[in-house]
Specification:
CATH superfamily of the largest domain: FAD/NAD(P)-binding domain
CATH architecture of the largest domain: 3-Layer(bba) Sandwich
Strand content: 25-35%
Number of strands: 19
Bound molecules: NADP nicotinamide-adenine-dinucleotide phosphate
Largest sheet: 7 strands, mixed
Number of domains: 2
Order of helices and strands: EHEEEHEEEEEHEHEHEHEEEEEEEH
Number of helices: 7
Length: 309
Amino acid sequence: MENVIIIGTGCAGYTAAIYTARANLTPLMLSGTQPGGQLTTTTEVENFPGYPDGIMGPDLMMNMQQQAEKFGARITFASVETVEHREDGTFLVKAGSESYEAKTVIVATGAAPRHLGLEGEQKLIGHGLTSCATCDGAFYRDVPVCVIGGGDSACEEAGFLTRFASKVYLIHRRDTLRASKIMADRTLANPKIEPVWNATVSQYLTDDEGEMRAVMLKDTVDGSERELEVKCVFVAIGHVPNSAFLGDLVDKDENGYIIQRPGRTATKTPGLFAAGDVADHFYRQAITAAGQGCAAALEAERHLSEHEG
Ligand code: NAP
């Protein structure tokens, strides 16, 4: 029986691991399908305290992993399917054919990029459809691409893509950006970015090889449709928290974010804690996720000492 299982290996998960490992709880981390979490898909992180010259996202996550392992955290690659809360207050965590028992569980599974839900979408991922400009932008040099969305992420992605693409269309369903003013102003001032207002993508159009060729744009005002030729579509319409596998062990808001006890990381199930982007749609920062990971570790530690016979 594990003292604590940490599900997820992003900033929240690793910080929870460092704290619980230093408390001699020898945490078991289950990595999920994206070990290292969202920061592994970014380039330079300039706002994580302690790195005055910035640090590459993957390097930051590697450092966190080393720090957690140094104190005794164990990491297993596993994608958790269910968590069961048993009558004796312990948990059974199932991942494929493996199952793990634990006295406490910290959920730090983060959030995944949202997609539009159009036909053929899954097959197109990696063939001209992506959510990560820093991962895939460099593949699309001197060709037109588009970004869907009007928030800070869309603006950030669009700006980054201008380094490679011949043209970046920014497709937004309204005629004003949701992004912060500084990001919006910078985006609209960039001569390589062309906003396409009041438009949604109703269809992805492919060539004979199954690669993205164009999108079908639908005008949100008059309903008219037209094709726009792009070689890659970068979707930046927000995220979906990875909380579905918890069923009703936790309360969730209308978007699936786990509801924590006010000011805490505890959930409605005793011994089950949530930290980072799976529970936070407001700050969504590496450092706030790390802070919640620390809080969840301290709460799990306290739970264990209160329940240890
Ligand atoms: P967001 O702020 O929620 O923006 C999502 C955008 O996608 C909105 O413009 C929304 O349109 C659009 N959208 C949503 N669903 C759509 C759909 N089905 N079809 C078409 N468009 C759709 O998400 P985000 O940009 O990922 O940012 C999330 C948080 O992270 C924010 O708090 C943001 O400030 C922060 N962030 C900060 C930075 C930075 O400071 N450098 C960078 C990235 C993110 P509507 O506007 O019409 O709703």
